Amino acid sequence: MNLIQKILSITAIIPLLLISCNDDEYGSRKESTPLFESAAVSPTSFTFGDSITLTAKITDPATNLSLLTYEVVSGNSVITSGKIPIGGDSHEVSQAIHVPLLSNQADKSEVRVNLVAQNVLKGFATTQVTGLTGNRPVYQRLYLVTDIGEIAILEPLATDKNKYHVGELPFATSIRFKIAEKIHNDKTIDYTGDVYGNVNGKIGMINESGESAFVYTPSADYTKELTFDSYSLSVTTIGNNLGEGELGLSIFTDQGINGESFKVLQIHLENGKTYSVFGELAETRNLFNPDFFERPAANKVTFLGKTGEYTVYYNTVRKNTFVGVNNPSYPDYLLACGWGLGYPTNITSEKIASVYPGKGRTHTDWGFGNVLNYVLLRRMGEGIYQGTFYTPGDHDHYASFKPFENTGWGNEKQAGGFTFTGEQIISGNNNWNIPNGEDDPVIESANYRFTVNLNDNTVHIEKVIL
């Protein structure tokens, strides 16, 4: 029942009230009704999604005031409503009211505010503020911001100013997102502008505490296009399937390795070829092993290794991608195994341990039983090898490892046979140690690039930002 209907119902009851007892809990009944001295709304022309200010002066010299009820109405729809406590025999109201944007809300809509003032004896008065105009918001562009930090710019369609579109996406088929009018320089949402998310299972305007919306693209390998309709407050997507030279997890298979979850793909990779990546592989938090991949764009990777057959490994928790080969060996590779190395990842050890108990960013061990026991150094030139690893473990700041020429412990490279330049983090004559003794300096756990030159037996170590 809307407000006007309630008023009509109350009016019908008034004769019954007049024949009731003259005394009640408020004392001797006095026949009085509130009086609206004034009522106004500013601004008179506003944008849906903004706030308006209701001002009113209400008096009732005979009976204390109790409540002011308001409805903001456009056409036949109640956009929002609320109650404002009032009291005494005179009360001045100044109340900000948020006017949401509803689906299919007409532009330049005539808006009115219905008001009902009551006193403690249920006497009431009504008034209406008219002459108001509600306008639809218009944006030059909008920003699609996914929960994992991806950003895409939505541009208005020339054929429909209420529809905002982005194409050539590399997104997953399942997306949790918000749509924002403004973003900060660090790509986070600026809530001083309009933001759309989930409101009771539908798209609507939200504030900082609001939830993300969700969309799924069926029968596709990835989401290629997305359109936001700000009139119907809906989102539609178009998906696509992978082609030659395109990589997405839909063509990977699941594999458990040493208690960790992987997506794996056996594939022929070509040196210098650029591959398009989609879905989770295109997420900025997914870190491709920089010794084997260059990433010219979020959804592009160029393979740096030797042309051949590889297995691509994507760790679903560590969010990193690296390659392996059958029986890696010199002269194409060196293999480093031992304690305290890990392929680079942007996921913290705390997050990794929450899924893989007892584990962290480092994962190597003494042995070659699986691809997590060791890490590969790629041949960069005659006798020169490069490997980029996170080390030492951030739980103990300790590492002890050695490079080998093959998985049979062949031709180990002892630390005493090399001169180390750059970051002085390695000590020892046999194992390559990063010690954590009482008198040892604490070595920062970070991504370090090792360049091993077997021609002059030098190792250059530099810290890198990935």
Can you tell me about this structure?
- With 466 residues, this protein is mainly beta.
- The chain is built from 2 helices and 36 strands.
Total number of strands: 36
- Biggest sheet, in brief? 9 strands, antiparallel
Low-confidence stretches: 7-29
Structural class: mainly beta
Number of helices: 2
What's the rounded overall pLDDT mean?
Answer: 93
Shape: elongated
Distance between the termini: 60 Å
Number of structural domains = 3
Strand content: over 45%
Radius of gyration: 34 Å
The helix content, as a percent range, equals under 10%
In short:
This protein has 466 residues and is mainly beta. The chain has helices spanning 3-18, 349-355, and strands at residues 23-24, 27-28, 35-42, 45-47, 51-59, 65-74, 77-85, 90-98, 109-119, 124-135, 142-146, 151-157, 160-166, 174-180, 195-199, 202-205, 213-216, 222-229, 234-240, 246-247, 253-257, 260-269, 274-277, 287-288, 293-297, 300-303, 308-315, 320-324, 333-339, 374-381, 384-391, 399-404, 419-422, 432-434, 446-453, 458-463.
Layout: helices, strands, pairs:
Blueprint lengths: L2 H16 L4 E2 L2 E2 L6 E8 L2 E3 L3 E9 L5 E10 L2 E9 L4 E9 L10 E11 L4 E12 L6 E5 L4 E7 L2 E7 L7 E7 L14 E5 L2 E4 L7 E4 L5 E8 L4 E7 L5 E2 L5 E5 L2 E10 L4 E4 L9 E2 L4 E5 L2 E4 L4 E8 L4 E5 L8 E7 L9 H7 L18 E8 L2 E8 L7 E6 L14 E4 L9 E3 L11 E8 L4 E6 L3
Parallel strand pairs: 4-10, 20-23, 24-28, 33-36
Antiparallel strand pairs: 1-2, 3-5, 5-8, 6-7, 6-9, 9-10, 11-12, 11-14, 12-13, 13-18, 14-15, 14-17, 15-16, 18-19, 21-22, 22-27, 23-26, 25-26, 27-28, 29-30, 29-32, 30-31, 31-35, 32-34, 35-36
